Amino acid sequence: SPMVVLENLQETMKNCMLIMLVENISGLSEDDGDFTVEMIPEIRAAVVTFSGNTDAREFAEKLNQHRRAKQQNITARCLELTKSVRVENITPDIPSDYIAIYFESKKNGGAQVVDVQQLPDEDAAIITFHDHKGNA
What we know:
Helix content is 26%, strand content 29%. The chain folds into 2 domains: 3-78, RRM (RNA recognition motif) domain (Alpha-Beta Plaits), CATH 3.30.70; 84-129. It is built from 4 helices and 7 strands; from the N terminus they run βαββααββαββ. A hairpin with a 4-residue loop joins strand 6 (113-119) and strand 7 (124-129). It has helices spanning 15-26, 56-65, 67-71, 96-104; strands at 3-7, 35-40, 45-50, 75-78, 84-88, 113-119, 124-129. The N and C termini lie close together (11 Å). The protein is elongated and about 50 Å long. The protein has a 4-stranded antiparallel β-sheet with strand order 2-3-1-4, with helices on one face.
């Protein structure tokens, strides 16, 4: 997977600071489209997605050894490929067939859905695709 999860981010960590840290460690440039960073403040994490041939595992190892990352207690791990995603704000009255058709639509990804497990108590659903490319 070309994705690395950065965990234990401080609540005050700004997107621009994280981008600079990734650039310093990787030697790549976000402005050049070498990677993107998606902040997930609810779990104090971010996902770095590399384009091209960057070795995500090597980057994660470098970040885990980097002085500044250690100082801030930031850890990195490669994101595993998965065939399932959790989708939230799905009310229990929406039929699972509708959810499957929605995700199989070309404008919403066009991936083959093999299972929809609704979680009515959580207003959520777990969508399982035929292969890991369906949830990209």
